[in-house]
Design goal:
Blueprint (H helix, E strand, L loop, with lengths): L1 E6 L5 H8 L4 E7 L3 E3 L4 E3 L2 H8 L4 E3 L6 H9 L3 E5 L7 H4 L5 E6 L7 E2 L2 H7 L4 E8 L9 E8 L5 H25 L13 E2 L15 H10 L7 E4 L2 E6 L2 E2 L11 E5 L2 E6 L2 E4 L2 E3 L6 E2 H5 L5 E2 L18
Parallel strand pairs: 1-2, 1-6, 2-5, 6-7, 8-11
Antiparallel strand pairs: 3-4, 7-9, 9-10, 12-13, 13-18, 14-17, 15-16, 15-20, 16-17, 18-19
């Protein structure tokens, strides 16, 4: 089939590459415009645009699917559009530009975790399994009929690792879905079961409440690493934390929010025991081993959760 590929971040690149290697023809790649990146705000192409240009593919840049871009897509007269994390809503005019429709690779088992951050929310929820779905886009939020579903383990240490894994496994499912569409054997099944929504992750979602159980703290840290990164306040200023894991057996009774050393390991008291932390980045200071941070300071206590729901200092400082 003749297709357009629509995607923007790193997680979309494996699917682009898989479709290039398939029997289908990519007529153009649709991606969001170059965006400022980093503290110096350097204008940078999306990962999908960079890879598409390396592959010699035509690129269409658009932040919204309206006006001229609709005309460009309609002129291509493609059979279908493959979407992986493009980042804009396709309305009726856009969906009508492909004969068979637009088909999205989503990183959850729909209808679970519809929305922008399915893997992050699944990790935060402590799920042991999730998966990928390929569905036909309709006018709802990730609500269209499903062509392919693949259940996968979710035992990854952080979002970056999980997304990379799901992106590569999902790429094969997307190609298989397009093979089925081309062969006329695709079966589209309505979504069934209870739907949930995966809102975009913000700074507040990355705050660690040490009154919670250790497992919940570790799962939240997994779900917000590496970005925006788990944090808690020390004297009203945000400190980022890295490498949270189950702690070794600590003889002392738990002390919620206390950062202390135990057998040459830095541990933090939580609601039902202790969690281990490898590194810390205090506000305005470089990242360092947590045991080194404690050396010469003694024990440190994180602010109580009710005083730490939002960082009082600029969240971009010291990050």
């Amino acid at each position: 089939m003749d297709i357009v590929f629509a995607g923007t971040p790193d997680a979309a690149v494996p699917a682009l590459e898989a479709l290039v290697e398939s029997r289908h023809r990519i007529r153009a790649v649709l991606t969001r415009p170059d965006a400022p990146v980093g503290r110096k705000r350097v204008l940078t192409p999306s990962p999908v645009k960079a890879r598409a240009l390396e592959l010699g593919l035509d690129v269409i840049e658009a932040s919204r699917l309206r006006g001229e871009v609709i005309t460009e897509l309609r002129a291509l007269k493609v059979d279908a559009v493959a979407v992986v994390a493009y980042g804009a809503i396709a309305g009726p005019a856009a969906l009508a530009t492909a004969e068979l429709g637009w088909f999205n690779l989503h990183f959850s088992l729909l209808p679970e975790h519809r929305g922008a951050a399915p893997v992050q929310r699944a990790l935060i929820a402590g799920q042991s399994h999730s998966g990928v779905s390929v569905f036909k886009i309709d006018e709802g939020m990730d609500s269209g009929p499903v062509l392919r579903r693949l259940e996968l383990p979710l035992d990854h240490p952080d979002v970056a690792t999980a997304l990379d894994d799901y992106a590569h496994r999902g790429a094969a499912e997307l190609v298989a879905a397009f093979d089925d569409l081309a062969d006329g054997t695709a079966v589209m099944s309505p979504q069934s079961g209870e739907a949930s929504h995966a809102d975009k992750i913000g700074i507040a979602d990355a705050h660690l409440d040490f009154s919670e159980p250790a497992r919940a703290i570790i799962d939240r840290a997994r779900g917000v690493s590496p970005s925006p990164g788990p944090w808690a306040n020390i004297d009203g200023k945000r400190a980022k934390l890295f490498g949270l894991a189950p702690a070794p057996d600590v003889a002392a009774a738990t002390d919620v929010g206390l950062l202390t050393s135990w057998q040459k390991t830095a541990v933090i008291g939580c609601g039902d025991g202790w969690v281990q932390v490898e590194e810390i980045q205090p506000f305005g200071k470089p990242r360092m081993a947590a045991v080194d941070f404690l050396r010469g300071r003694g024990d440190i206590r994180f602010d109580p959760s009710e005083a730490s729901a939002e960082p009082t200092a600029d969240p971009e400082q010291g990050a």
